[in-house]
Amino acid sequence: MSSERLFSVLFLGIVALSLCLSSATASDRKLHDFLTQHCTSCHNDHVQKGGINLDRLEDDWDDPDLLLIWSRVHDRVSRREMPPKSEVPPDRSAINVFTSHLAEQLTQSELAQKRSGLRRLNRVEYENTLSDLFGIRVSVKDLFPDDPTAFGFDTVGDVLTISSQHLEAYLLAADRAVREIMGPPSKPLTIDVKKLMSRDSFATHALNRVFVKIDDGGLVAFQNLDCPMCFIAGQAKATGTYRVTIQAKVYQTDEPLVMAVYGGDVIRRAGPVRLVEYFDIPPGDQWTTIEFEDYLEEGHTYRVAPYGLSAPLVGPDRFKGPGLAIGEVSVQGPLEEWPSRSRKELFKGVRSRSPGIADARKIFERLLPRAYRRKVTPDEIDAPLKLVQAALDADKPFEDAIGVGLKMVLCSPGFVLREEPLEQTNGQEPDFITDTALASRLSYFLWSSGPDDELLALGLSNQLHRPDVLRQQVERLLLDPKAERFVQNFTGLWLNLRDIHFTEPDATLFPEYDEMLGHSMLEETYYCFHEIMHDDRSVVEFVDADWSFLNERLATHYGLKGIRGAKLQHVRLPPESGRGGVITQASVLKVTANGTSTSPIVRGVWILNNILGQPTPPPPPDIPSIEPDIRGAVSIREQVKRHRNHESCAGCHNKIDPPGLALESFDPIGGMRKAYRSLGEGTPVDLVIRFKPVQYKTGRPVDPSGTMPDGRRFKDITEFKKILAEDKTSVAKCLTEKLLTYSLGRKVQFSDREAVSEIVKKTEAKNYGFRSLIHEVVQSDTFRRW
C-alpha cells in the first residue's frame, strides 16, 4: 500500500472515530445538561439528598454500577417522581427527550456487553442432576458450601464461583455417587418385622414410664415430647426404601387425634431426625392402618408420637385424658432390587466375562452425551477411558476401573458447569443459544436438573426451538413430578421461604407456635403455588384470592372453624378473614418478621421488591434502623413517622410504609391481631396454653390503615389487597422478571424491559394466567439469548 493510500485510510478512520466520539460526547452532554438544569441543585457535592450525587455521575457506559444509577435516574424522571413537586417541573417534551435518549444509550450499552456462556450448577442442581442421570437417590448437596444469591436467586451465574471447598466437595460427592450407582457388592440384609408394640418395643428410659403405658391392645402414648418413646420395631440394616405399616387408634377420647411419625437417628439422637408425615387417626375403637414408604439410612428407625397432647405429670396409669394407642407395626426393606437398577443400566451390553476397554468405551459413549448434556468429541470420550485403562493395567477389577472413570466425569467441567454456546451462523452475529443449551436451560428452569432423554434428543436434532415443540415440552415438564422442584425452589427464593427457620418465635410472646404450625405454613404456600400454576389461575391470586389450602392446625391459627384433620384441603375463605394470597400467608409473614416483633419497613420493602417489582435503594448510612419496642411504650407507627419526617427518607418511605403498615394486622407468626403483644405495659391476658398461663400482655392497638403514593386510602389489609389486585400489570411484570432471573441466571436489565412488557402483554388475554406466563417466558427470544 502506498504512503498516500495508507494516509488516506488512517485519516478517514480518525475522522470516523472523531465523529463517533463527538456524537457520543454531544449525546452525553445533553444528558448532563438536563441533570444540571433540573437535578444537581439537590444532588451535588454539597447537597446529596437521598445520598445521591449526580454532579459527578460519569459516562462510563461499560460500568455495570454506573448503568444501574443511570437506570434509576431514568425511572425516577420518567415516573415524574423527580424533580420533586416543590421544584419547577421540566417541560414534558424535555423529559421525553431525556428519557428516550437515556433509554437508548442504556440499551445499546448493555447489549454490547457479552456475557459468559458458562455457569456452575448450584448445589441443588448438582444433586438433582446426579440423581436423575443414574436413577439413584443420593444426598450430596450438604457437602458443598451454601450457594450465594444475587437479585434474590441462587441461580445467577456471576456469583456461582468455584472455590477450593467446591473442588474437595466434588471429589467426595463423586465417591458417594459411585458407591450408590454400583450398589452393595452383595445382597443387603433386609428386615421384615411384624410385631405388637409392647414394653420391649421401646427403650427403658425413665421418661417412658411417665408418658407411656402398656395396654392389652398395645402401647399408649400421652405426650408429644422428644424423648425415647415409641420406636417402631427394628433399625435399618441397609440404606434404602422401607415400607412401614402402623396400626393406631385413639385412647380415652371421642375426638380424632393426629399421629406424628419421625425418621432418622431417633434412638441415639446423634444425627438428624426429620418429620415423615402427620397422619389423621379418627375416633372409635377400630384400628386405623397407616402405610407409607420412606427412604431410611442404615442404623436409623422411626418414632411415633401423638401431636398436640400435653398431659399433666400424674403418671400414665392414673391419667384419664386422651392418648394414642399403637398396635401392630411392620417394617419391610430395603425394597430396591439387587443388583441395583443403576448398576444394570450402567453395564448394559457389557460382556459378562472378561470385559475390557472396548466395553468401557460403549459405557462412556452412551453416558457422556447425557452427562455433558450435548454432543461430545472423541477426545472427551478418551479422557475417562485413559483412567480406566490405567486402572485395568494395575489389575483393578473392571467395575472399580469404571468407577475411576465415572469419578472423573462427575468432577469434570462438562458436568459441573452449564455451557450455553451460541448457535453457529453463516458469518452473521449469532443471536440465540444452541438447541442443546436450550434443552438444559428449560430443564434447569422447571426441574432444577439436566434434560432427560426426550428433551436432549430434541436439542441434539435441532427441533426444540420450534414454538410448537417448546410448548409441548413445557407442558410435559410441568406435568412431571419433578416439577415439584420448581414449586419449592422458586417459591423458596422468590418468597424467601428458605429462611423460614432462620429465627425461632419467642416462646414467651408466641407460646402457641409449634412444629406442626411451622410445617403447615410452608405446605399452604406450596399447595397454593402449585394450584395457581396447574390451573393457569391469574397471577393476581398471588396477591388476593378467596381460597387457600388449610388443615385444622393452620385454620385454627387463622381463626377459621369447621376444618378438621392434618391433611391440607382446598378451603373457600370468608371475606372477613383477611386471608387469601401469599402476602397474608403465615409462611411469608413469618419470614418477614424476626420472631419477636414486626417491622413495616421490612415488610413494605418485601412487597415492593417481591410483588410489585419496585426495589428500593438501601437507606443512607447515617439513618438509624427502627428497633420495635416490645415493652409496649412506643408504637411502631410512631417510630416509622420519624423516618417519614426525615428529608433523606421521605421519598422512599412514601412507598414503603403503606404496604408495611397494612401487614401490621399480622404478628410475627402470621396470626391476625388487633393489638400488639407486650412484655411490659399493657393488659394481662387470661389464657392458658399447654397448661401454662401466658406471660404476655395486650399492648397498644394496631392501626393497619394507610395512604398510597397516588392518594388512594385503605383502612385494613382487605382494602389494601384490593388496591394491589387492581394493578395486574405490575404484579405480572414483577413475576416475569423473577422468572427470567431464575431461568436465565442473570439480572433482568434495562435492555430486557421491552421483552418483559411484550411477555406480559401476551398473557393479558388469558387474565395473566401464571401457566400462560411461564409459556410466554419460554417462547420469548430473551429465553433463547445469553
Structure notes:
This protein has 786 residues and is of the alpha+beta class. The protein contains 25 helices and 21 strands. Helix 9 packs across helix 10 (398-410). The longest helix is centred in the N-terminal third of the chain and has 36 residues, at 3-38. The two termini are 41 Å apart.
Structural topology:
Layout: H1 3-38, H2 64-78, H3 92-112, E1 118-120, H4 123-134, H5 164-182, E2 191-196, H6 206-211, E3 212-215, E4 218-221, E5 230-231, E6 240-251, E7 257-264, E8 273-281, E9 288-296, E10 301-306, E11 323-333, H7 341-346, H8 357-372, H9 378-393, H10 398-410, H11 413-416, E12 417-419, H12 435-446, H13 453-460, H14 467-479, H15 484-494, H16 515-534, E13 547-550, H17 552-558, E14 569-572, H18 586-591, H19 600-610, H20 636-644, H21 650-662, E15 675-678, E16 683-684, E17 688-689, E18 692-693, E19 697-701, E20 706-707, E21 713-714, H22 717-726, H23 728-744, H24 753-764, H25 770-779
Antiparallel strand pairs: 1-12, 2-11, 3-4, 4-11, 5-10, 6-9, 6-11, 7-8, 7-10, 13-14, 15-19, 16-19, 17-18, 20-21
Brief digest:
By secondary structure, the protein is α+β, with helices and mostly antiparallel strands.
SS summary, helix count: 25
Report how far the terminal alpha carbons are from each other. Answer: 41 Å
Class from helix and strand fractions: alpha+beta
Largest sheet: 6 strands, antiparallel
What's the shape? flat
Helix content: 40-55%
Give the quaternary arrangement of the chains: single chain
Question: Strand percentage, roughly?
Answer: 5-15%
* Spans of at least 5 consecutive residues with low confidence: 1-25, 202-207
> What is the mean predicted local confidence, pLDDT?
85
Radius of gyration, whole Å: 31 Å
Q: Into how many domains do the coordinates divide?
A: 5
Number of strands: 21
